[in-house]
Structures are given as C-alpha cells and as structure tokens.
C-alpha cells in the first residue's frame, strides 16, 4: 500500500472507556480518506498501523485499521 499524506496534516487518536476519538485538521482528514481508499483495494487481512511515532500527534493512542471480507 502506498500512503499519500497531504502537507500539513495533523491527526490525533484517543481511546477511553470503549470510545475512540479521531480528531484531525482538513489535511489530516484528507490523508485518512486516501489511506482508507487504498486499504479498500487490498485483500482481507490487510491493515495499517498509525501511532505517535508513525504519523499521529504526540500523545495519541495507536490506531489499527483492517479490511475484512
């Protein structure tokens, strides 16, 4: 999968008591949309991981998105 990041993107993920909040600026939402479109073309079981060391804002919780059949 090739990910396209829109310049200036900011994405934060917080998980708390069974709720997940994804907050992002306009560029971050565009980037996530591109990632989801790329993932939709992959085979079941394909996934991507994002965390504060890989593209998310500092202090973010890890986000894993997977395609199923």
Give a written overview of the molecule.
The protein is an alpha+beta fold and 69 residues long. It contains one helix and four strands, in the order E-E-H-E-E. The chain has one helix at 26-40; strands at residues 11-16, 19-24, 47-50, 63-66. The strands form two sheets. A two-stranded antiparallel ribbon has the order 1-2. A hairpin with a 2-residue loop joins strand 1 and strand 2 (19-24). The relative contact order is 0.26. The model has no long low-confidence stretch (mean pLDDT 96).
Q: How are helices and strands ordered from N to C?
A: EEHEE
Radius of gyration: 12 Å
* Percentage of β-strand residues: 25-35%
Low confidence ranges: none
The tally of beta strands, per DSSP, is 4
Q: How many angstroms does the end-to-end distance come to?
A: 18 Å
Oligomer: single chain
Number of helices: 1
Main beta sheet: 2 strands, antiparallel
Binned, the helix content reads 10-25%
- Form type: globular
SSE class = alpha+beta
What's the pLDDT, averaged over the residues? 96
Task: Going across the biggest sheet, name each strand in turn.
Answer: 1-2
Indicate how many domains the architecture comprises.
1
Question: Concise description?
Answer:
With 69 residues, the chain is of the alpha+beta class. It contains 1 helix and 4 strands, in the order E-E-H-E-E. Strand 1 and strand 2 form a beta hairpin.
């Amino acid at each position: 999968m090739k990910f396209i990041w829109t310049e200036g993107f900011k994405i934060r993920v917080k998980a708390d008591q069974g709720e997940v909040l994804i907050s992002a600026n306009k560029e971050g939402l565009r980037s996530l949309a591109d990632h989801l479109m790329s993932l939709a073309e992959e085979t079941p079981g394909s996934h991507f991981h994002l965390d504060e060391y890989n593209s998310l804002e500092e202090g973010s919780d890890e986000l894993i998105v997977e395609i199923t059949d």
